[in-house]
Amino acid sequence: MAKLITETVEGGPYQYYPLGDYIVRAVGVCGGRPTFKYTRIEITGTLDRLAAGESIGDIVKGYRGRVSHEAIIEAIRLVTSQFIKTLPELKAA
User: Fold this and answer.
1) pLDDT tens, position by position, 17-42
2) What are the Cα distances from residue 67, in Å, to 25, 43, 88, 89?
3) Residue 63 lies in a domain
4) What is the structure's pLDDT at 79?
5) 22: nearest Cα among 63, 65, 67, 77
6) Which residue of 39, 41, 60, 90 sits 20 to 30 Å from the alpha carbon of 9, by its own alpha carbon?
7) Do the Cβ atoms of 4 and 17 come closer than 8 Å?
């Protein structure tokens, strides 16, 4: 796991484990589930919106600048790479 980072945000400590440039697991935020950095927006909700057919542009607009296009792309890549890592090795019959 990545190193714990501590920053001061709005006068208080913000501790997180970075999973990327935009995705973190923050101490005391959303039960430690991955969120977009400096928000309480879980990446799973964003991925659900994409799966339902909403465009990245519309999601970005809906978050009113709190989550960028690049952050959403990072969430997709992160989940995809983690999924691939969990697949069992195939063996020939």
Assistant:
1) 999 999 999 999 999 999 999 999 99
2) 16, 10, 33, 36
3) yes
4) 96
5) 67
6) 60
7) yes
Residue 93 lies in a domain: no
CA dist 59 and 62 (Å) reads: 5
Q: What would the two tokens of residue 79 be?
A: 């989940």
Where the chain has pLDDT below 50, the residues are none
User: Which are the contacts of 37, defined by CB distance < 8 A and separation ≥ 6?
Assistant: 16, 18, 21, 22, 23, 24, 26, 71
Q: Would you give the DSSP letter of residue 32?
A: G
User: Any idea which residue has 């927006």 for tokens?
Assistant: 41
DSSP-based helix, strand, coil % in the chain, nearest 5 = 40, 20, 40
What is the rounded distance in angstroms from the CA atom of residue 39 to the CA atom of residue 62? 14
pLDDT confidence of residue 1: 64
Structural domain that includes position 31: 5-86
User: What CATH number did the domain enclosing 23 receive?
Assistant: 1.10.10.10
